[in-house]
Structure prediction request, 76 residues.
Amino acid sequence: MTPAEIDQLVAAGLETRSVEFKQAGSWADVGLRGKLIRTALSLADTRDGGVIIVGMKVDPGHPGQHLPDPLTDEQF
Prediction:
């Protein structure tokens, strides 16, 4: 996947069957780590796999849509 394709997914802000967004956070956060692992396993079990984009948050004004919430240097 190219950077331009990732940019398009982020700009659209919508999850699909093969695109999942996760909030920014530390790998030390056991809850977030579990969600990322479960999502990766779930996408690996689909025909064409998928993409997990970390650093997106739910848009409170538009249910079902997401906004960029970039990782901090520490989280990265």
Q: What stands out?
A: The beta strands are 19-22, 51-54, 56-58, 66-68. The mean pLDDT is 93. The two ends are 20 Å apart (CA to CA). The chain has one domain: 3-68.
